[in-house]
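Might you be able to consider the sequence and fold that I enclose below?
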Amino acid sequence: MTLNNAVETLITVQGTASDWYDAERATLVVQVQHDGPKREPVFEATTRVGADVTAAIKALDGTAVTRWSSDRVSVWSNRPWNNEGKQLAPVYYASLSATARFQDFDALAALVERFATVEGVTISSISWDLTEEKRLAVTTEIQTRAVQDATVKATTYARAAGLTKVSAIAIADPGMLGTGGGGDQPFPAGGGMMRTQKMMSMDAGAPALTFTPDKIEVAATVDARFSAS
C-alpha cells in the first residue's frame, strides 16, 4: 500500500478591484427656512417659497426628474438669551425640504441657479450616483475582477513556493474567513463600495451655472483561501 504524504499548503489572500464611471444621476436636496419674531409671516414666507420650489421640481417630473418628494412645513420657536443672561422674546422658525433625483444635469443647473439666491433657500447637497441597473452591472463586474485578482495572487505565491496546483476553498467578504490558516489579517468590512471623487463641481464663471459631475468609483474587496500542492 502506498501512502500519499503530500502536505497541503494553505494560501490566504485579499483580492481587490476598482474602476471609475460617469455619474448618471444627481440627487438634489433643497432646504427652505425663515425665522422672525412673529409666527404667521415666517410660516407664510416658508410656505410660499417652498411652493415655488416644489412647483419647479414637479414641472420637471417625468423628464429631467425621475422622482422627487417634499415634506410639510414645520414650525417651532425658542427664546434666545443675550450675553447678559437675559431671556429675549420668542423667535419663530419655519422649515421644509424637497429632494429630487435628476437625470438631466442642465436642468439641475438651471433650477439651482434659479433658487440659489432666493432668500430662505439653501442648496443643502447634491450627490452623484449611477442608475440602479448600471450600479448592479458594474458591481458584479468589479467583484468578479476582485476574485480574479485574488486567484492571481495565490497562484503567484504558490509558484514562488514551488507549488503548481492551486484550488480555491473559500471566498468571502473581508473579515469573514476568520484568523489563522495562512496568516489572515483583519480587513475592513464590506465586499464592495461606491464613492464619488468629489461631491460636485460648478463653473461659476460661465454666463449660466453648469455642473460637471466627477466620476464615481466602484470598488470591491474579497478574502480568499486556496489550497496549493
Q: What stands out?
A: The radius of gyration is 28 Å. DSSP finds three helices and eleven strands in the chain.
